[in-house]
Amino acid sequence: MNNILECxxxxxxxxxxxxxxxxxxxxxxxKIYGMIGRNGAGKTTLLSIMTSQSRPTKGSVSLDGETVWExxxxxxxxxxxxELNQVSVMGPNNMxxxxxxxxxxxxxxxxxxxxxxxxxxxxxLNVKQKISKLSKGMMSMVTIIVALASKAEYTFLDEPVxxxxxxxxxxxxxxxxxxxxxTGRTFIISTHIIEEAADIFEEVIIINRGELLLKENTQHLxxxxxxxxxxxxxxxxxxxxxxxHGVENMGRSKxxxxxxxxxxxxxxxxxLSVQSVxxxxxxxxxxxxxGR
Length: 292
Prior knowledge:
This protein has helices spanning 43-50, 72-75, 97-107, 113-122, 136-149, 166-183, 218-223, 232-239, 279-287; strands at 4-13, 18-28, 32-36, 58-63, 66-67, 78-81, 154-158, 186-190, 203-208, 211-217, 225-231, 243-250, 253-259, 272-275.
């Protein structure tokens, strides 16, 4: 099937840990996906496998019906721009920013030099500086430039705004949306900064403990989520038979986050408060239950 990136039964095992546990995931072309999960949930591992930088223990990844692994024709359609750090860029391969971007221009067949130059100027990057000497925020800017200027049909960004201040983050989201609207490229963004990015995610993917917890249209997901609070017996009656997360017991009172079936809703009463929830609060309720 064309215009589909498909993961089937993706499992990744290390000596003492199973990082991914049989993930099935289908991504359609022309959307912005947000991938969220706690540290160690398996997000970066999954992105690495999807872009053929790591091989799964079991399972397969295909794009347009063709396997991704060691398939250069397919890999030419992808860019995985992952977080840089001082450790990874030290040693003989340590480069100046301009050398790093020049290498990227060779690697990506649709490289847009004009865009790269413009972003360097917008971000006020010193291209003569060594990457190992850059701040964390400046390193993030380099990964963003590579991702956007690659013009790859499927572009994966792992923690793209790490270290960026709020002004630079807003600048990134603005540029990303402009590029998306102009080209219809597919973006898959893994991030811990959920709330400010939630509005740009058409669909959200939540990974928890190496498993796919959900993949859903962001707006539809939030429309069927709410936080219910009040006297414990009233709350229990209101949420009976529903998918309940993040239960908070406070004496005789109780709070809980609920995922309802589409079209259903819990009505507020004098004894029951029902409020909408943000994506970040929903994520905490869904994935913050470990050890309960």
